[in-house]
Amino acid sequence: TLKIETGASSNYLDISSLKVTYLELKAGVSKNEIKFGSLSSIQAKIKAGVSRIKLFIPRSIGIRIEANTALTSNNFNKLGLVKQGDVYTSRDYSTTETHLDLELDVGISSVTVELY
Predict the structure, then answer these.
(1) pTM more than 0.85
(2) Which residues contact 10 (CB under 8 A, 6 or more apart)?
(3) Which of 18, 35, 80, 103 could be a cystine partner for 56, CB 3.0 to 4.6 Å?
């Protein structure tokens, strides 16, 4: 479990080589980059105000993102994530061994996912 709370900040978290099963990030006005790994499934919550969020996610894991957002841009559709209500899911979610289940609660923000 990893819990981080910051104010106005620039944060880079590389947890790709760690067996983190729960991540919680609370940030104010911020720039955030998080690199997830595939060692274990992870549940993550990101709560941020005015922010830029870039998520690096392995192609080998299933992705589910619940986006509680206001005035936020993202590239989820361009990645082929299927939208149902406020939830975006990768097509292979049910067949992958490891998953990222992410809850986004952000205000005026930009959220970008880059697969690696």
Answers:
(1) yes
(2) 30, 31, 32
(3) 35
| Of the candidates 5, 15, 71, 70, the residue with the CA atom closest to the CA atom of residue 43 | 15
The whole domain housing 73 covers 2-115
> Which residues lie closer than 8 Å to 77 by C-beta, 6 or more apart?
83, 88
Burial string for 50-66 (b: 16+ CB within 10 Å, else e) reads ebbbebbbbeebbbbbb
Compute the distance between CA of residue 44 and CA of residue 25 in angstroms, rounded to an integer: 8
Contacts by residues 23-30 (CB-CB < 8 Å, ≥ 24 positions apart): 27/51, 30/6
Write phi, then psi, for 95 (nearest 5 degrees): -110, -5
**What is the number of domains present in the chain?**
1
